[in-house]
Design goal:
Blueprint: E1 3-5, E2 8-12, E3 17-22, E4 28-33, E5 38-45, E6 48-53, E7 57-62, E8 68-73, E9 83-85, E10 88-92, E11 97-102, E12 108-113, E13 128-130, E14 133-137, E15 142-147, E16 153-158, E17 179-181, E18 184-189, E19 193-197, E20 204-208, E21 217-218, E22 222-226, E23 232-236, E24 242-246, E25 258-260, E26 263-267, E27 273-276, E28 283-287, E29 299-300, E30 305-309, E31 315-319
Antiparallel strand pairs: 1-2, 2-3, 3-4, 5-6, 6-7, 7-8, 9-10, 10-11, 11-12, 13-14, 14-15, 15-16, 17-18, 18-19, 19-20, 21-22, 22-23, 23-24, 25-26, 26-27, 27-28, 29-30, 30-31
């Protein structure tokens, strides 16, 4: 998904190209080719953009002009955008490792490993950093909390346990980014669980049986999720009870949800953007800004604007206009 900062939006594509555009009009500010096969990012940390590659590199470039700063090989694909805080960048690899790198030089600071099941989904969660703690979802259905400076594990919590006889039935990946807001953290597993947790201890407050592989979204009262069949769910934040669910977009490969102007917005496999009422899940508007699949979670800029990124790199800004 694109990254935004200082009135600019940054994108990266599989051909190794990184670019910056003005949010106000989409005009390109700069464009550079990294000569890497980029598959994740960009993430933005200060004045640095961080991307992941199919060959296991973390690539850092200047956010001001796209010029290269460093790249470090982690030996396994980096499929989710690296994150960072202060002078530390953190990346997750598909072989179960989490690595911290010096943001100025790319030097490896620490690495931790976790087990990976024989069969997993194609994707990983980005690390989420709050203060001096890194939160990471794993392919074994867990969320880990690590010390940012040392990598020491603070806690580990299981979101979903494998069940069923076949390896396919036993997939429990936590591929959506853990979502932290205030004193609450939410996570989802493809193994059939959306949970609310305590960020400082990992203690689970509630759990609902929803299989989801994407990011979650919240408003003051609700948690929103999309399931593996394209259903969209609204859960009460304090209890996890279902407020509503809708399958009207079923099997349209909808993106993770975002909250925009009090309603829910998702993209789909044909490049449509759908706005759903937060009250009952009914569709209140839709548009077709691009001609390719929108797999990434929309990036909400304000109450009236959001960015959507197509699977082939097409970028569009959309505005909400209610159906007449």
């Amino acid at each position: 998904m694109p990254a935004t900062a200082n009135g600019l939006v940054y994108t990266a594509n599989r051909d190794g190209e990184v670019a910056a555009f003005r949010l106000e009009n989409g005009k390109r500010v700069w464009h550079e080719n990294t000569d890497h096969q980029l598959v994740a990012g960009p993430g933005i940390v200060g004045d640095t953009l961080l991307m992941g590659t199919r060959n296991g590199d973390v690539v850092a470039v200047s956010a001001a002009n796209g010029k290269p700063r460093w790249h470090t090989n982690l030996a396994s694909e980096v499929l989710a955008a690296p994150a960072g805080e202060g002078n530390i960048a953190v990346a997750r690899t598909v072989d179960g490792r989490v690595a911290a790198l010096d943001l100025e030089s790319g030097k490896r600071l620490w690495t931790i490993e976790s087990s990976v099941p024989n069969l997993t989904m194609r994707g990983t969660a980005s690390p989420i950093i709050r203060g001096n703690t890194v939160y990471v979802g794993t392919d074994s259905g867990k969320v880990l909390a690590l010390d940012l400076a040392t990598g020491e594990q603070r806690w580990e919590q299981t979101v979903a346990l494998p069940s069923g006889r076949s390896e396919l039935e036993r997939i429990v990946d936590v591929d959506g980014n853990p979502l932290i807001t205030g004193n609450d953290m939410y996570a989802a597993s493809a193994g059939g669980a959306v949970v609310a947790m305590q960020p400082d201890t990992g203690q689970i407050r509630w759990k609902e049986d929803i299989a989801s592989e994407g990011n979650l979204a919240v408003d003051p009262q609700h948690v929103y999720a999309t399931d593996l069949n394209g259903g969209v769910w609204s859960l009460l934040r304090d209890s996890g009870d279902t407020e509503w669910t809708t399958d009207q977009l079923g099997y349209r490969s909808v993106s993770a949800p975002a909250v925009m102007d009090g309603n829910v917005v998702v993209g789909d496999y044909e490049g449509y953007v759908h706005w759903l009422s937060a009250d009952n899940g009914d569709e209140i508007a839709r548009g077709h800004p691009i001609g390719e699949a929108i797999n990434a979670q929309p990036v909400v800029l304000d109450d009236s604007r959001a960015l959507v990124l197509g699977a082939e790199g097409e970028l569009a800004m959309v505005r909400f206009v209610a159906n007449q």
